[in-house]
Write a structure and sequence with these properties.
The chain has 14 helices and 14 strands. It has 415 residues and is α+β, with helices and mostly antiparallel strands. Strands 1, 2, 5, 11, 12 and 13 form a six-stranded mixed sheet that branches. It is extended.
Length: 415
């Protein structure tokens, strides 16, 4: 029976139960033994039908959400920092239960030690493993949680960089290369055709990003939280690397192209052989360049060394230099992923400061995460009774509007 037929049958049964009660009430009596038996039977059937109806309605809702998810992923929906991949992936009650109950720590322990006690849900995930190392593709509901942990470690995403879940390994989304012009129109005159606006593609191609963690068998056996610590360590490492490639990715080989190596990003050069940064004038200039390209700069990212130089900046009378009012309310982030050994002219200890409207930095992410564990990956691992755990995901980086980023290059350490 379909849903409408189930509901009609339930309504008919409820009416027949109501009729038994009404008849007894008209005759001013209680239900007879035969009536009560019939009434109880009808109510039992009503409850069974209600359960069927609920399950069918949940099934239909899951199908609707899954269809909506597929459309969203194929449309390249972008997630802000306050939105989660899990909100897109976890569309059914089953997925939510898996995400809630699945423990990657138990999975790692089972993969490494072969001990699946209390880990039936995790053991079932082994059926999807295909690697000779014992790899397991973590279920999407669980993977989305780990990927969200990685995203939470990213300063770029914290500043507003967007995440686009990738349904396939390649995704093209649109970007604006040049803004349109608008014109005032007089009465009975034609609207001037715009010839300035230009749209272009951002082509995201999922590239593999991996992480290796080594630990002793004794630790996995004795420390109940060892697997959870490994999970957090992998998520943190993946998040930090996403920052690095988002900022300074080379674009060569399998590495995505970051802001530093993207064409048409505004550059403020500290000089032929680099220069010291004192005070906040260069930060104001970087924000100005973004504003001149119709952007809305909301934050800066720089290396810890640059942070210290800015904090220690003194004016001519020996007072600490304060942040100018125009940029005081912007966000400031420090990242160890920005190198301090860049070559700039004759300097080999330069670094870069980044400013921008960070919503224009796009991270494309496949929603799968693979975990593998091996006790025999190499002779050292075997002889030292260690376990090597490998986790990897696939992602890419794109810059939507390069002109709405600025970088101050050639910053060398102060004397």
């Amino acid at each position: 029976m379909n849903l409408a037929e189930l509901k009609q049958k339930r309504a008919d049964l409820i009416a027949s139960a109501r009729a038994l009660l009404d008849k007894a009430e008209r005759e001013n009596r209680k239900l007879s033994g035969e009536d009560k038996s019939e009434y109880d039977s009808v109510i039992g059937k009503v409850r069974n039908l209600s359960d069927q109806i609920k399950k069918e309605e949940e099934r239909r809702e899951d199908e609707r959400k899954n269809a909506s998810q597929d459309r969203s992923l194929s449309d390249g929906i972008a997630l802000r920092k306050d939105q989660k991949l899990s909100d897109v992936i976890l569309t059914s009650e089953k997925d939510k239960r898996i995400a809630r109950d699945f423990n990657i720590g138990k999975l790692v322990r089972g993969l490494a030690l072969g001990n699946w006690e209390g880990a039936e849900l995790e053991r079932r995930a082994m059926s999807e493993g295909t690697s000779t190392l014992g790899g397991v593709m973590v279920p999407s509901p669980v993977a989305s949680n780990v990927l969200d942990m990685a995203r939470n470690k990213s300063v770029c995403i914290d500043l507003g960089a967007q995440t686009v879940p990738m349904k396939t390994s390649n995704l093209t989304i649109a970007k604006v290369n040049a803004d349109p012009s608008v014109y005032w129109r007089g009465e009975n005159t034609a609207i001037t055709e715009d010839t300035n606006m230009e749209l272009g593609p951002i082509s995201l191609e999922a590239k593999t990003l991996g992480c290796l963690v080594r630990c002793s068998i004794e630790l996995l056996e004795d420390a109940p939280n060892a697997g959870d610590v490994i999970e957090k360590a992998i998520a943190g490492a993946l998040g930090s690397e996403l920052d690095r490639v988002g900022l300074v990715g080379s674009g060569s080989g399998a590495e995505p192209t970051g802001i530093f190596n993207t064409s048409n990003v505004n550059e403020i050069d500290m000089g032929t052989d680099g220069g010291y940064i004192v005070g906040y004038a260069k930060l104001v200039e970087a924000a100005q360049k973004v504003l001149e390209n119709n952007g809305a700069p909301n934050g800066f990212v720089y290396a810890p060394r640059t942070w210290a130089d800015l904090e220690n900046s003194l004016s001519g009378d020996g007072q600490f230099i304060e942040i100018p009012p125009g940029i005081k309310n912007m966000e400031y982030r420090v990242s160890n992923q920005i190198p301090i050994d860049q070559v700039h002219g004759g300097a080999d200890n330069a670094t870069t400061l980044f400013c921008g409207g960070w919503e224009n930095l796009i991270f494309g992410m496949r929603t799968q995460l693979v975990l593998e564990a091996s006790r025999v990956a190499d002779s050292d691992t075997f002889s030292k009774m260690q376990v090597l755990v490998r986790g990897y995901l696939r992602a890419d980086v794109g810059v939507a509007r390069p002109g709405q980023f600025s970088m101050v290059t050639g910053i060398i350490p102060s004397a």
